[in-house]
Amino acid sequence: MIDPQRARDELGPLVTGALSDDDILDRYARVVWNSLTEPGDAAAGILTGSLGAFEALGRVRRGDISDSILEPGEARAAMQRWEPRMRPGTVSGVLRTARVARLRLVTPADEAWPDAVDDLGVHAPLALWVRGDPRSIAAACAGVAIVGARAATSYGEHVAGELAAELTAVGIPIVSGAAFGIDAAAHRATLAGGGRTVALMAGGLERAYPQAHTDLVERIAATGAVVGEVAPGSAPTKWRFLQRNRLIAALSAATVVVEAGWRSGSLNTAHHASALGRPVGAVPGPVTSAASAGCHRLLRELQATCVTTAAEVRELIGWGELIGAGDGESAMRTTDATRVRDALSARVARTSQEIARRSGLGIADVQSHLGILHLSGAVTADAGGWRLA
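The chain above was modelled as a monomer; its predicted structure follows.
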């Protein structure tokens, strides 16, 4: 049995707000689950989704999960995975490491929780660890993931930097993995432009990986957020990198692969994005370049959208862009963002509900587009509602 006061003391500054005992126990239970499972564990997702994190943990400790929630074989396999990690003191050690590293714990009950990752279903994370501002995670859901090869060419790094800088200039957050090559180029260009960037890590957040990017990770945390799913103290492994990629895809409105080899891990991210229904863009390169073979593969096999400019990337996330016609004229592509703008007035303030009625879009979609338009300066907000700038 978990004592609420002990849980409250151990969580300490990792959580904020006036939390009830039930809230504290839920968060503590999620830390325990975080220590027991590997990212994306479907059995854990099913149990916690059906019973709640605390009750599900109690069932596991009693060995009582062979019921209608999990198939008997699935329950046995799950217990065999989890039992070796049920060691006294593990969670206290995790929380101690997290406190020293000044991390924050974010769960689905928190306002900062990015609802976009819930699209992963039973494979969604049970909790997230954050260095920096947790609010940056939710903002990233309207942003773009820029990923690619670690062994990037100068061409790839140049394109990644240009795309990130131009997207940042209009307020679009950039998501990546803080790795060498394309990831680092995208993060650095965003920081240089004063934008917000989020880095998803495959290991514990108490140290940077790769270690050479310690300064970069610190800079990202200072203005945005560094996010991890595995418990503090966990080492990055190949499996965790692959699972981390699903979070990059889920957290972003679109994924753009700038440069990738034939078997690059970035293709894994692109496939996750496609499976989630997120747009995927690929930057073409020389047909003789092995560093672009993966991008060409995405264009051929995944029907990814060919992107060469930031304007084309903005189209992926629903921003209306000018499309050059053959006669030199331009026409606006009709997008949901265009519908939101058409429902706005420069003179009369309108509420989100009114804009939703006029545009024919759902209130959640309207609020998402209004947020992006507000970041770009296209709309203003006051007590009366929203106006075109």
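The chain has three domains: 4-96, 130-316, 332-388.
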